[in-house]
């Protein structure tokens, strides 16, 4: 699971921090370890134009949050929801549209680690809540 | 050290986990089960099992005898009376039973105060806090002032003696054994409830000598099955307490206006109990007596002190708890810059070592650890290696080597 890609993305600083002019701020929690994430998203004309996150977590959750933001910035809400739908299918081991997930599909192996799926999904579940807030 | 042949009783120890021989350091969560206990349990289910107490046929009689013999055995084990031994589903249920029963009986009202500590497992913290909100009694909280969550007797500093003190015998995070005798001396008149989940598996205790009033523990942390636990309480209190659950064997007479209850201990044993689990607890206890509690304690002490010594030498590893002879069976730690979930995952994947990572259902204690932590970022959780009869010093050497490797992979120098 601890591939170079995950290790590199876990240390990425680009999306770490607070987004002062965020339109949506959403908090997520992983109850099993006490990890928390605050997700900031900025929208323009229905498109996610910027995003950042704060919080501490394991390498899997941090890499996943970075990859998540990289994947959804530049997408509109429906496209982001479509990615989300495919991410959920991927972790469940169901068929999913690989071409829609880009780099996220490199983390497909997470389906073989049921105890780590919560870490991986923390940022994605927070994204889902944030998108629900965005009308 | 205990004989290596003990390890032969635990077939899981021969398992290969990702190509490595299993090293099981998660006994504080739940112990492995000896083959003998499983075989005896299997034999009981195959030949003797039926529901208990009500029927007159042979199997019902054998099962009832087994259950009552377990009760008798536990009474002797704790130096208590048989009618004071109540079978529950585990420590959590035992503690919730006491809190709820006290409130229902009017034995805990708005003028009363309860003393709990910040090192408690949620099961001995949340019921008190939550029910104090619903029933207006007062809760005083003792904060540990020693090294990383170490609780000292001076920390129990309250103006008024509480009606109830609810305290753990041993922290499930730091492994510290709490001096219950000193707490009793300091508060001679309080009702003393002890969460024995972590400690009872290590040492045979005498509830009368300790002067405690209630004791809760679980079978699954002492080689027995999960889903069965014990609440021991002093008869005088149990007689006054309103039952927590109604139905089954706990009933005496049922009318439209009034209901009366069975005698102790049945008054608190509603519904069909975990009959197999209770038999399993007996088999586990007999197995442990065969090993000898003194030998077991000595063995675990050696492992713990060795682990403290080994791990404290590793740079960038922070160890929690008192790090002295009062720390038993548990070593909780973090590697600077590496999240405990990553440590635990890699210990399993690369070395076959099973440890627990997370907040260990002790979130208030995690906040205390954070205040003293020298880590760049404290992850609100720890990695916990916990030891039992089947562990060896060599396994701790492998853990230390593995931690060094993980540090390398995460560039922690």
Structural notes for this entry:
- The complex is a heterodimer of chains A (135) and B (413).
- Chain A has 135 residues and is an alpha+beta fold.
- The longest helix of chain A is centred in the last third of the chain and has 17 residues, at 117-133.
- Chain A contains five helices and three strands; from the N terminus they run αβββαααα.
- In chain A, strand 1 (24-30) and strand 2 (35-44) form a beta hairpin.
- Chain A has helices at 4-11, 59-72, 77-92, 98-101, 117-133; strands spanning 24-30, 35-44, 47-54.
- Chain A is globular.
- By secondary structure, chain B is an alpha/beta fold.
- Chain B is built from 13 helices and 17 strands.
- In chain B, the strands form five sheets. A seven-stranded mixed β-sheet of chain B has the order 4-10-9-8-7-5-6, with helices on both faces. A four-stranded antiparallel β-sheet of chain B has the order 13-14-17-16.
- In chain B, helix 6 (180-186) links the parallel strand 7 (164-168) and strand 8 (191-195).
- In chain B, helix 4 runs parallel beside helix 5 (126-135) and helix 11 (340-351) crosses helix 13 (393-409).
- Chain A binds chain B through residues 1-2, 7, 32-36, 56-61, 113, 115-116, 119, and chain B through 338-342, 345-346, 349, 357-359, 363, 366, 377, 379-381, 409-410.
- Chain B: Keywords: Pyridoxal phosphate, Transferase.
- Chain B: Belongs to the class-V pyridoxal-phosphate-dependent aminotransferase family. Csd subfamily.
- Chain B: Catalyzes the removal of elemental sulfur and selenium atoms from L-cysteine, L-cystine, L-selenocysteine, and L-selenocystine to produce L-alanine.
């Amino acid at each position: 699971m601890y591939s170079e890609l995950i290790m590199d993305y876990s240390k990425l600083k680009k999306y770490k921090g607070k987004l002062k002019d965020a339109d949506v701020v959403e908090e997520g929690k992983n109850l099993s370890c006490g990890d928390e994430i605050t997700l900031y998203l900025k929208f323009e004309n229905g498109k996610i134009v910027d995003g950042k996150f704060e919080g501490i977590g394991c390498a899997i959750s941090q890499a996943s949050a970075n990859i998540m933001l990289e994947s959804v910035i530049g997408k509109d809400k429906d496209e982001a929801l479509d990615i989300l739908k495919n991410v959920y299918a991927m972790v469940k081991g169901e068929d999913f549209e690989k071409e829609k997930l880009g780099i996220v599909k490199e983390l497909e192996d997470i389906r073989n680690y049921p105890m780590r799926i919560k870490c991986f999904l923390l940022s994605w579940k927070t994204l889902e809540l944030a998108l629900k807030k965005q009308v | 050290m205990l004989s290596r042949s003990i390890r032969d009783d635990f077939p899981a120890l021969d398992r290969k986990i990702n190509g490595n021989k299993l090293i099981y350091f998660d006994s504080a969560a739940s112990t492995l089960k000896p083959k003998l206990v499983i075989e005896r349990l299997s034999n009981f289910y195959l030949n003797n099992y039926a529901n208990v107490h009500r029927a007159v046929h042979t199997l019902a009689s054998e099962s009832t005898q087994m259950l009552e013999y377990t009760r008798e055995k536990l009474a002797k084990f704790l130096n208590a009376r048989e009618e004071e031994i109540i079978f529950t589903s585990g420590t959590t249920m035992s503690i919730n039973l006491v809190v709820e029963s006290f409130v229902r009986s009017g034995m805990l009202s708005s003028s009363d105060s309860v003393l709990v500590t910040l090192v408690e497992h949620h099961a001995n913290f949340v019921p008190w806090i939550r029910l104090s909100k619903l029933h207006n009694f007062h809760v005083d909280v003792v904060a540990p002032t020693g090294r990383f969550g170490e609780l000292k007797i001076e920390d129990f500093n309250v103006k008024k003696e509480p009606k109830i003190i609810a305290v753990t015998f041993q922290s499930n995070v730091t492994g510290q054994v709490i001096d219950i005798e000193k707490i009793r001396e300091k508060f001679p008149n309080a009702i003393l409830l002890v969460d024995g989940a972590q400690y009872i598996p290590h040492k045979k205790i005498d509830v009368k000598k300790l002067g405690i009033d209630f004791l809760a523990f679980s079978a699954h942390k002492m080689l027995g099955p999960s889903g069965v636990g014990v609440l021991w309480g002093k008869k005088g209190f149990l007689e006054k307490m309103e039952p927590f659950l109604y139905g089954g064997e706990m009933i005496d007479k049922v009318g439209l206006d009034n209901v009366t209850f069975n005698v102790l201990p049945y008054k608190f044993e509603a519904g069909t109990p975990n009959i197999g689990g209770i038999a399993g607890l007996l088999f586990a206890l007999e197995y442990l007596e065969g090993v000898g509690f003194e030998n077991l304690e000595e063995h675990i002490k050696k492992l713990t002190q060795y682990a403290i010594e080994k791990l404290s030498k590793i740079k960038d590893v922070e160890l929690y708890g008192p790090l002295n002879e009062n720390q038993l069976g548990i070593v909780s730690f973090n590697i600077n810059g590496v999240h405990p979930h990553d440590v635990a995952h890699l210990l399993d994947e690369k070395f076959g070592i099973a440890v627990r990572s997370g907040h260990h259902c002790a979130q208030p204690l995690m906040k205390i650890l954070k205040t003293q932590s020298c880590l760049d970022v404290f992850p609100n959780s720890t990695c916990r290696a916990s030891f039992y009869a089947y562990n060896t010093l060599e396994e701790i050497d492998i853990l230390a080597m593995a931690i060094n490797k993980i540090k390398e992979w995460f560039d922690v120098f």
